[in-house]
Write a structure and sequence with these properties.
Layout: E1 5-11, E2 17-25, E3 28-30, E4 32-33, E5 39-43, E6 53-54, E7 56-57, E8 61-62, H1 70-92, E9 105-110, E10 117-120, E11 125-129, H2 141-155, H3 163-184, E12 194-195, E13 209-210, H4 233-236, H5 238-249, E14 252-256, E15 259-263, H6 276-290, H7 297-312, H8 317-328
Parallel strand pairs: 1-8, 5-9, 9-11
Antiparallel strand pairs: 1-2, 2-3, 3-7, 4-5, 5-6, 10-11, 12-13, 14-15
The protein binds asparagine (ASN), zinc ion and calcium ion.
Calcium ion binds at residues 142, 178, 181, 192, 194-195, 197.
Domain Peptidase M4 C-terminal: 157-331
Subcellular location: Secreted
Domain Peptidase M4: 7-153
């Protein structure tokens, strides 16, 4: 049966009131984003398998901004998926995660007090827990962009999820997750180089990760060393997150959208940023054209230099900035 493309209202937890892509007609709507490949958002109701139940209501207004309303997490997840889709299309020239216009789907209310979110390539879907105690659902926009971008990586370089390639896989998700947050430019959740600052997973108001100085989380590496690949992938991502910050914003102190950063470099290398738009275009071109499942930090350097050459030329300021940003995190060849 024919289902019209509709625009609903989402009262989210992290992004205020937003418009959502929905489907249906008067009296019966679903969280089916017909304008974005038909992306659907489901309620797992505490379950941990299957798709659960498609969110359906009669008003096309979803959630009330509070976690106690089960549509609220759905509104956040649906919005995050939509902004990621739009970012891929507008900024990367990519039609969906796999580049074929096919939507993924989202599942919220996974398990009991589950404090994580994840992408699963076998279902081509992402899943969000509700968090524990005072935590909120893990449905903030940078988390959504992060998880969906695991699908993007799987569909492109397919970076193996261990060693240095695993760190690059994780960093790719942080790079695009942050880029989606900036792209959405939502007044309730402005862009920053912090990951998970809205979900308070640590319970003390600190974010999960810091791209300007990854070691601020107490575990991530700021720069490359020959043992970095031994770290958990969420910590060996640090040098590549730091590279992206340096390439975008440059070294030293800076305040962006009210957040202060201070990005140190190895040997005090000075990096002049080229802006995040050029930086994510270079990273995406490198990921989708030059990186493979076994790409290391050294390989990522070569891949981004090739991408910068393709996009801006070998004699460009952008090429020089890429080389300098790698130098700033101790990758010189
Ligand atoms: N949220 C985590 C991530 O995307 C889940 C995991 O570690 N697999 O990396
Ligand atoms: Zn991840
Ligand atoms: Ca963030």
């Amino acid at each position: 049966s024919y289902e019209a493309i509709e625009t609903g209202i989402g009262n989210t937890m992290f992004s205020g009131q937003v418009t959502l892509g929905t489907s249906g007609s008067a009296g019966s709507y679903t969280l089916t984003d017909a304008a974005r490949g038909g992306h659907k958002t489901y309620d797992l109701k505490g379950g941990s398998s299957g798709t659960g139940t498609l969110f359906t209501n009669s008003t096309d207004t979803w959630g009330n901004g509070l976690a106690s309303n089960r549509e609220t997490a759905a509104a956040d997840a649906h919005y995050g998926a939509a902004m990621t889709w739009d970012f891929y299309k507008a900024e990367l020239g990519r039609n969906g995660i796999a580049g074929d216009g096919k939507a993924a789907y989202s599942r919220v209310h996974y398990g009991n007090a589950y404090v994580n979110a994840f992408w699963d390539d076998s279902c081509f879907c992402m899943t969000y827990g509700d968090g524990y105690g005072n935590n909120s659902p893990l449905t903030a926009i940078d988390v959504a962009g992060h998880e969906m971008s695991h699908g993007l990586t799987a569909a492109t370089a397919n970076l193996r999820y261990s060693g240095e390639s695993g760190g690059l896989n994780e960093a790719t998700s942080d790079i695009f997750g942050t880029s989606v947050e900036f792209f959405a430019n939502n007044a309730s959740d402005v862009g920053d180089y912090l990951i998970g600052e809205e979900i308070d997973i640590n319970g003390d108001g600190t974010p999960l990760r810091y791209m300007d100085k990854p070691s601020k989380d107490g575990a991530s590496a700021d720069s490359w060393s020959k043992t970095v690949g031994r770290l958990d992938v969420h910590y060996s991502s640090g040098p590549a997150n730091h590279f992206f910050y340096l390439l975008s914003e440059g070294s030293g102190a800076k305040t962006i959208n009210g957040v202060s950063y201070n990005s140190p470099t190895v040997n005090n290398v000075t990096v002049t940023g080229i802006g995040r738009t050029k930086a994510y275009k270079i990273w995406y071109k490198a990921l989708s054209t030059y990186m493979t499942s076994s790409t290391s930090y050294s390989g990522a350097r070569a891949a981004t230099l090739s991408a910068a050459t393709d996009l801006y030329g070998a004699n460009s300021a952008e090429y020089a900035a890429v080389a300098n940003a790698w130098k700033g995190i101790n990758v010189t060849k």
